[in-house]
Design a protein that fits this description.
Chains A, B: It is found in: Mitochondrion inner membrane. The structure is a homodimer. By secondary structure, chain A is α/β, with parallel strands linked by helices. Chain A is built from twelve helices and 22 strands. The first copy, chain A, has a domain of 171 residues: FAD/NAD(P)-binding domain (3-Layer(bba) Sandwich).
């Protein structure tokens, strides 16, 4: 949306939220290292046309279906969670070009109780829920009348999934415990513990040396690493495949993402993994004027290319590519529906992996600059990586306003500690 | 709590929220001029003993009853609003000295529907609700399928009560409309309106010249002032005493405060207005070792003094006075229950009004430095007052962390406009 040429296109954005979440920094907001608004970018700041130009709009709604022949989508407004809110209503939007960029859903692998009892880490309201619950548990465990066993359960934070999100969240949490809980909740500091459960190896996409470093670092910060598969989740305990019961007060689920039920419902051919299948130019080949980018899309098997990982890095690069492609099509006179037949599309989309990063708390991070899991390249771990991690993400935050706030949040966390108001 | 001498006292704070709200700046957070956390001060930052000293605690609970003879209070934990939260449980806390500082409740004057449909402006979650609802209404009114009439209703913001809170909120709102809505929601900018309803005169405690200035300033910013009494509140309209129906999309109720049902339930003599009655030393005279300060307390008729207004200024001065008094009692050996009989309490509490301030939006404010409504003194209005208003409040914010954030919020609002993410 940011790079679309609004002199030629009218932009209509249909989304159930009016902001973009800068997900790589979301884990830091759960414990107050960063504030929620520092990682949320209003869409009107990303593409001002939606709030100003006569034919461009932001529509707070969910897309429910698409009619590629009629060139329209069906939508329903989102008004949940407000008192005296209007009842949702349905409407249609006509399009010349349609881009799906609707992301993925957290995977639960069909395990019972996950959706009811665990908290995901994908949206700002998830981070808010984690922060409120963590502070509630810390405070309740200090109130007279609670048993020792209940206190230990309340303050047991369990993270399922050892990918970058799970590891970064565990790192932030242990940092919060070492730095802030010891000072601000010193009555209960010996009761709080973090357990990270992973079926395979943590950070499996990283270099083996970095994985070992991360494991040592997490153990040193007091995180208990458990190799196991979760079988069942109940309201205050989960059960592992070896029968072990793990009582918890906070359960965060970060085992990766899969195709959403909306994506599954779409009448398009799918890539391996059930995402919207696209060709080399990110077009949905069975219909006209439809494109898909980000976590909701994947190369069709017929392209001979692998489905790209569900990373911010991929989505960003695809977004930029597609904006250029659409601007090119528009300038060549193919901007309207059903009329781009004779336009030369130029080079296909090629993804070049720049590397991966993850922080493990306590001013330590990993930077893996290899292009793929098998190739050779630079990999670093430690304070310098942590510095690179922070600097790199600071430059990726979209607006200057949020860059300023991220920097100031980091500064005040360093100077004053994290904010523990439960609001 | 801040000034209590923790070398002699153990401090136990029982409260349903773990932070203090800096209410004078709360109205600014509803539209994003300030962020919520900039006006919330965690109690552990105000009195660190509650989180560190072995006998001092913060207890997330509501006090439900007091037994002055046994020197105990009954409490119940507060766990509402979380999924899988513990069921609330009851417990008792014993005290040597008991201080009631539990504030007041918003007055509804028994008008039907106020609690169900209006939003008060007393807590951070009220400001969050207002901000979410305002942004929701702005976005919904831009979605196809809404009628012109419904659009006008959704974007009609009604404020009932023309005291400082109602006026400041109306001012912030009109400032938000002039500066941010015109830019960020330009499709609907001609539909949004603010109406301020007051039964008598706005800002009745201020100098007549300042009142006139405020009235002109509000009208100039587009606020419609209505003299009237609300008779009935329904889910999307309210009815005035002259029969006029006022449709609204957002209704903020700020008609002042009265004694809470908890205060009414306490077995103590009451001051005029139903607050906990206190003597000149802020003691509850019918029992031993009980004190009351702030909005929940008032001088007994027998003292011959007027009940003080429900202002932050009064509460702050009483808190400081009482901390000194309790420290004095403790040092004289009277810190325990039932043993302060022979201590000379020193001078009684005397309140000296320093003046009142209110902002009316668009860099304008009122400063009234008269000591009472009848006396003479300095009163100012305009940009200089606005500057005094901001500087004065900036110095009153308790922690350096929040002072920094308030200043930076003001700066970024000036530079980048207000944040319109609905999170």
């Amino acid at each position: 949306m940011k790079d679309l040429d609004t002199t030629g296109y009218e932009v209509v954005c249909v989304s159930p939220r009016n902001h973009m979440v800068f997900t790589p920094l979301l884990a830091s907001t759960c414990v107050g290292t960063l504030e929620f608004r520092s990682v949320a970018e209003p869409l009107a700041r990303i593409q001002p046309a939606v709030s100003k130009s006569p034919g461009s709009y932001f529509l707070l709604a969910r897309c429910t279906a698409v009619d590629p022949d009629a060139h329209t989508i069906d939508c329903e407004t989102v008004t949940e969670g407000e008192k005296d809110a209007l009842k949702p209503w349905k409407f249609k939007v006509a399009y010349d070009k349609l881009v799906f960029a609707c992301g993925a859903e957290a995977s639960t692998f069909g395990i019972r109780g996950v959706t009811d009892h665990a908290i995901f880490l994908r949206e700002v309201h998830h981070a808010q829920e984690i922060r409120r619950k963590l502070l509630l548990n810390l405070m309740l465990s200090d109130v007279p009348g609670i048993s020792e066993e209940e206190k230990r359960r309340l303050l047991h934070c369990v993270v399922v999934g050892g990918g970058p999100t799970g590891v970064e969240f565990s790192g932030e949490l242990s940092d919060f415990i070492i730095r802030d809980v010891k000072q601000r909740y010193s009555h209960v500091k010996d009761y709080i513990h973090v357990t990270l459960i992973e079926a395979n190896e943590i950070l499996s996409s990283f270099d083996v040396r970095l994985r070992q470093y991360a494991t040592n670092q997490l153990i040193k910060s007091g995180v208990r690493l458990v190799r196991g598969i979760v079988k069942d989740v109940q309201s205050n305990k989960l059960i592992l495949d070896n029968g072990e019961e793990v009582p918890y007060g906070l359960l965060v689920w970060s085992t990766g993402v899969g195709a959403s039920s909306f994506v599954k419902s779409l009448p398009f051919p799918k890539s391996p993994g059930g995402r919207i299948g696209v060709d080399e130019w990110l077009r949905v080949p069975s219909v006209r004027d439809v494109f898909a980018i980000g976590d909701c899309s994947g190369f069709l098997e017929s392209t001979g290319k692998d489905v790209l990982p569900a990373l911010a890095q991929v989505a960003e690069r695809q977004g930029k590519y597609l904006a250029r492609l659409l601007n090119h099509i528009m300038k060549a006179g193919g901007g309207h529906a059903n009329c781009e037949i004779n336009v030369d599309l130029g080079p296909a989309f090629v993804y070049k992996h720049l590397g991966s990063m993850a922080t493990v708390g306590r001013y330590k991070a990993l930077v893996d600059l290899r292009q793929s899991k098998e190739s050779r390249g630079i990999s670093l771990a430690g304070f310098v990586s942590w510095f690179i991690w922070r600097s790199a993400y600071l430059t990726r935050v979209i607006s200057w306003r949020n860059r300023l706030y991220v920097a100031i949040n980091w500064l005040t966390t360093l100077l004053f500690g994290r904010d523990i108001s439960r609001i």
